[in-house]
Design goal:
This protein is globular. The chain has helices spanning 4-20, 25-28, 38-58, 66-70, 81-100, 104-108, 122-146, 159-162, and strands at 110-113, 116-121. It has 171 residues and is mainly α.
Length: 171
């Protein structure tokens, strides 16, 4: 059984997908005011997933240009929706075997960069990523409302069925 915190990340990813489901390629690249485009936000989340679970945790960087394009402070851009969705799906697919094996002891361990602590545990990094998804999920919903989308998903989805509370101690 996967760790309860990992289950929450997987639920959050599913909710992220629900939030962007039905966005057209044309709507994905729209900018409203200072907000980033939906397509950029998808790339941004792929960047953070890769940074934590592939690059820092495993020393892998399958998409070396993600930071330059999608890190906080990267230049404003509007990549094609199909491109960033493929990247996001591939990054999250590649992270799954690693995440599925995490234990409480792993999550309590310090996240390292080149063998040196980065100032947070893997568990804190996971919490940051979960909260980051929810922040940008709200942003996606706001963008979608502003460009006239209707019948948007209501959040939070079926948490009780998909990722109910489980004690770490019962896993």
């Amino acid at each position: 059984m996967i760790h309860p915190l990992v289950a929450q990340l997987y639920f959050t990813r599913d909710e992220w997908q629900r939030g962007i489901d039905g966005v057209s390629p044309a709507d994905a690249i729209k900018h409203i005011g200072a907000m980033n485009s939906i397509s950029w936000l998808i790339g941004h989340m792929a960047w953070q997933e890769q940074k934590y679970w592939l690059e820092l945790a495993q020393g892998k960087k399958p998409f070396p240009d993600l930071a330059g394009r999608f890190a906080a402070g990267a230049p404003k851009n509007s990549p094609p929706l199909n491109e960033v969705e493929k990247i996001w799906f591939e990054v999250t697919r590649l992270t799954r075997p690693y995440l599925d094996r995490l234990t409480t002891a792993d999550l309590e361990a310090e996240l390292l960069r080149h063998g040196k602590p980065v100032g947070q545990s893997l568990g804190s990094a996971m919490l940051r990523l979960i909260y980051h998804y929810w922040h940008h999920n709200g942003e996606v919903m706001a963008i979608r409302q502003l460009i006239g989308h209707h019948n948007l998903p209501e959040f939070v989805g079926d948490l009780e069925k998909a990722a109910p509370f489980r004690s770490v101690y019962s896993s």
